[in-house]
Each structure stands twice: as C-alpha cells, then as structure tokens.
Amino acid sequence: MNIIFLLIGCSLVLAVGFLMAFIWTVKSGQMEDDYTPSIRMLFDDKPPVTDKDELVSK
Question: At residue 8, does pLDDT exceed 60?
C-alpha cells in the first residue's frame, strides 16, 4: 500500500514539473510564432558555396 502513495507522489511531482516547464516556455515567448513553421518548407534554401563560385567572385 505504501508503494501506491510513493507512485502518486512521484507522478504529482513529475506533472508539476511539466506544468512549470510549459508555463516557462509560454512566458519566454517560444510559442508566439504559429504561422512561420507551417510555411517554412516553402522557403528556398541558400545554394551551397562551391570552389567554382569562390574563384568567380575573386
């Protein structure tokens, strides 16, 4: 019976920890941009620089 109380206590501590982490991320502004992640795959990546490109620019 004692193990049930221990498990309930551990689960409550873990749940409070996750709640505190969630509140911290919301307050620090990490979840404010909800538009850009959905369209990020549409942005073009910069082409990689090759040795040929470096010789042309010199």
Answer: yes
Range of the domain at 25: 2-57
d(CA 33, CA 25): 13
The 10 Å CB-count burial string (b at 16+, else e) for 2-23 is eeeeeeeeeeeeeeeeeeeeee
Overall domain count for the chain: 1
- Tens-digit pLDDT profile for residues 12-58: 999 999 999 999 999 998 878 777 777 877 777 777 666 665 555 55
DSSP string, 3-58: HHHHHHHHHHHHHHHHHHHHHHHHHTTTT---SHHHHGGGSPPPPPP-HHHHHHH-
